[in-house]
Amino acid sequence: MSRLAGQATAAALAFTLAGCMVGPIYRVPDIATAPAFRAAPPTAAAGALRPPDWWRTFHDPGLDDLESRALAQNLDLAAAAARVGQARAAAKAASAALLPAAQADGQAARAYSSVAGTNAYLAHAPGYSRTGSLYDLTAGASWELDIFGGLRRDAQAARADLAAAGADLAGARLMLTADVADAYIQLRAFQTRLILARSQIDADRRLLDLVRLRFQEGQAARREVDIAEASLGQAQAVEPLLAVGLEAQLNRLAVLTGVSPEAGRSALAAPGPIPLAPDLEPGPPGALLRTRPDLAAAERRLAAADARIGSAISGYYPKVSLQSLLGWESTSAATLITSPAAEAQGALGIKWRLFDFGRVDAEVANARGAEAAALAAYRQGVLRACEDVENALTARLQQAGRAIMLRRTEAALQRTRQATGDAYEAGTVSLLEVIDADRQLMATQDGAAQADAETARAAVALARALGG
What is the rounded CA–CA span in Å between residue 182 and residue 192? Predict the structure, then answer.
């Protein structure tokens, strides 16, 4: 290698080691948030820790088993994990671009020449042979000196993309576990409501039998029999709707756990209670920036977009590369690795887009636009995260209060229904009053079951909104 190339290499190394990189210096945006959530209870802890397996706070073994199976078998989660692997490979490739690249080539050739073509005049030369051999062995290396940091910016962006993919995987895990918990709660709610509906159907059948008996004895009119039959029909019409909802949740859980809808149904066929909603402390809104996977992913994508601005700006500057070649070439394998057969080459290359700055301008503008879009997406994500938490807190509070009121109403209606039934059998009230009491009781019991389920679902939504 020439003296000039050596001096250039030393200068390039000095610039590289000095860490010269064009482009902006990234800083995590300072996003202001409220000191506390408006709908949070006054006694909420400032930053209570939540277990990573947050669904265990429901204390439901059936839910725990479903979550374990979903985490092991869900295909969306497997796809997210595969995308992390892709991002990791891209980050390795970007880092490898900073290092020298080397390759080796070897060739052994045997040729049989024509004597009727351009070599015809050699055919009569003494010692001429139409057959010949050529052996070649070379080793080369090249290195782009990242003087202005374009390659390092690319590596920064790739590492940020890898971190974003990891956060996306955590987000996919959170969404999966929340979807499983939500489907499980709805499943138990439909089972509970089906039990209530069938209980109402049985009660209406008994009432119809009683009315028919009274009709046969001349103590009731035909109109009362028709009313009792209509009431039974209305109660029976509710059951198919609940069965459809129940089947939908069974199918949903099957897909979430990575099996076909026909599989895994027997374990959930037996009705179970609606899980009790746990108390999850929200902490301050600013904590969402650390706990929400989607916000972590958005921040890392912002960092990647910022690094790509520097990569685009590096297009204004020259790219310097070193190349070297060492090899041997001989017509005989015996003399291949010898001094006479050796050959060497060294080169210092410079590539500069002097007449392409218009395109570089466009690339920089595009990178800045992508960074502005990523910043807006990050800020919008923070606002939506706070909205999710506020909505979940409000829903949990209001649904819990509704469930308490409905349970109190249910107890009163139970007493009213019993008294009305006794009065009807004594002939002091009409059948319409009995049926009305039945309907009120069933509607209240069904509403209470729905309120319990919605309270638990609000707890799931809060866990998802808080990042698990």
Answer: 15
Q: Which residue has the higher pLDDT, 98 or 306?
A: 306
pLDDT at 242 > cutoff 60: yes
- Asked if residue 294 lies in contact with residue 381, where contact means CB atoms within 8 angstroms, the answer is yes
Pairing of strands 319-330, 342-351: antiparallel
* Crossing angle for the helix pair 61-73 and 222-256, to the nearest 10 degrees: 40
Q: What is the DSSP letter of 217?
A: T
Query: For residue range 425-444, what is the model confidence (pLDDT) as tens digits?
Result: 787 887 778 888 888 888 89
The helix-helix angle for 150-216 and 61-73 (nearest 10°) equals 140
Are 192 and 213 a contacting pair, CB within 8 Å?
no
Please write the tens of the pLDDT for every residue from 307-321: 999 999 999 999 999
pTM, entire model: 0.83
b/e 60-97 (16+ beta carbons within 10 angstroms → b): bebbeebbebbbeebebbeebeeebeebbebbeebbeb
What is the C-alpha to C-alpha distance for residues 366 and 360, in angstroms, rounded to an integer?
10
Q: Please give the mean pLDDT across all residues of the chain.
A: 87
Nearest Cα to Cα of residue 397 among 449, 458, 453? 458
- Residue 181: CB partners within 8 Å, gap ≥ 6? 55, 58, 63, 67, 460, 463
pLDDT at 51 over 80: no
Which one of 1.10.443.10, 1.10.510.10, 3.40.50.920, 1.20.1600.10 gives the CATH number of domain 3-111+129-466?
A: 1.20.1600.10
CA distance 374 to 302: 5
Cβ pair 342, 277 in contact under 8 A: no
User: Which positions ≥6 away from 12 have C-beta within 8 Å?
Assistant: 145, 147, 320, 322
Position 5 scores a pLDDT of 44
Query: What is the residue extent of each domain of the chain?
Result: 3-111+129-466
User: CB–CB of 102/139 below 8 Å?
Assistant: yes
One DSSP character per residue, 340-408 reads: TTEEEEEEEEEE--TT-HHHHHHHHHHHHHHHHHHHHHHHHHHHHHHHHHHHHHHHHHHHHHHHHHHHH
| 101-112 and 319-330 strand pairing | unpaired
Q: Who's near 317: CB < 8 A, 6+ residues apart?
A: 22, 147, 148, 150, 352
Measured at the CA of 268, the angle between CA 263 and CA 269, to 5 degrees, comes to 95
Tell me how crowded residue 342 is: count the other CB atoms within 10 A of its CB: 13
- What's the pLDDT tens digit per position in 195-225? 999 988 998 888 888 888 888 888 878 888 8
